[in-house]
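Thread title: Can someone regenerate the structure for this chain?

I was given the following input by a collaborator and told the matching structure tokens would be attached. They weren't. Posting the sequence so someone can regenerate them.
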Amino acid sequence: MSPSGTRWRSGLGGIGLALLALVPGLGCGPAALLIMTAAGGAAAVSGEPQRLANTQGQDFDEQRVSRLRSGTHTREDVVNLLGQPQTKVFMERGEEWAYRYHVPPSLLRTGTEKVLTIRFRNGTVQEVRYSISAL
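Best answer:
Regenerated them for you:
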């Protein structure tokens, strides 16, 4: 490991010790919030899965979304590619499925929100809308 990487990691240890020193004086609620916020940021920085960060939804990658083609993919194809949607809305001319993934901001990173909406007509994909927002 490089010397700068070692210094960076030891700096995180110092931050952790400082947080532990603050915890007893804060009380139970604020202390828990401080620890969870710091842990979520540390998980994001370290590349660990972000289950500690209070995420909502299941993450999906842009490469799988780009494979969806209008008029060729069916509902079953979409489920095999992305899993079950979080919401389904049934309309007169078809249905609309929505996938959402939300990562709230913390001390060490900005939050993000991914939203994928797929409209079906006659059993096949009609329209795909995808957006990513920084929070």
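Residues 1-52 form one domain.
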